[in-house]
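Researcher: I'd like a candidate sequence for this fold, 225 residues long. If you have to choose between options at a position, lean toward the conservative one.
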């Protein structure tokens, strides 16, 4: 239980760091006086990290109160981590491609935290957190629901305001519909791959094996008595 308490505190601390980074990124964007700054909540990264803050707070409380996470929490966390981790990978690719094209992309510390450090830390925690539950395979297709809905709203809204949160969604900034379709399909494939990896980890992680061993030991003791 001591390990659960420690990870509960880490969850709450991570939520505080994530919230701080979101607030800094909001005001940093507003200070730029651009349409991107005024559309802070249109980014998939921002929306998924807002959900992550809520889940980490809930997870911290759960860790203090029980030895295991309920299955619904593990499922919800796996979905949100799929979105935040994939958003981080996509952002890294965007920054890399922008550099190849000679386009300047400013990356404040809050962006680095949201796109790189938090996804890496939460991925490690997903493997090590005690009391974790395995998640069903159906999280893989379900993980695509949010990106698809978000993409549909973004493509509907983009022409009306003349702006898109990511350049590859804007047909004016790519070679045509073909590049848009290929890039979008690749992004969805990455979402599915990340969800698959998280599902596999939930079944083979050290914390999962320890929980199964304890359950088997308790069952053996019960039969012996």
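Model: Candidate sequence:
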């Amino acid at each position: 239980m001591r390990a659960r308490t420690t990870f509960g505190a880490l969850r709450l601390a991570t939520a505080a760091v994530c919230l701080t980074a979101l607030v800094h990124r909001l005001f940093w964007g507003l200070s730029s006086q651009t349409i991107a700054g005024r559309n802070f909540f249109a980014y998939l990264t921002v929306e998924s990290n807002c959900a992550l803050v809520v889940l980490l707070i809930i997870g911290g409380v759960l860790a203090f109160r029980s030895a295991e996470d309920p299955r619904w929490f593990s499922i919800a966390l796996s979905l949100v981590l799929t979105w935040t981790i994939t958003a981080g990978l996509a952002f890294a690719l965007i920054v890399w491609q922008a550099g190849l094209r000679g386009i300047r992309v400013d990356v404040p510390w809050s962006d680095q935290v949201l796109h790189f450090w938090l996804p890496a830390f939460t991925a490690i925690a997903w493997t090590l957190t005690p009391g974790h539950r395995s998640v069903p395979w159906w999280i893989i297709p379900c993980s695509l629901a949010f990106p698809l809905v978000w993409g549909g709203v973004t493509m509907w809204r983009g022409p009306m305001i003349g702006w898109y949160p990511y350049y590859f969604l804007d047909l004016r900034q790519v070679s045509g519909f073909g590049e848009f379709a290929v890039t979008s399909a690749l992004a969805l494939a990455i979402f599915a791959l990340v969800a698959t990896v998280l599902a596999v980890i939930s079944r083979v992680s050290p914390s999962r094996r320890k929980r199964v061993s304890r359950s088997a030991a308790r069952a053996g003791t019960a039969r012996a008595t």
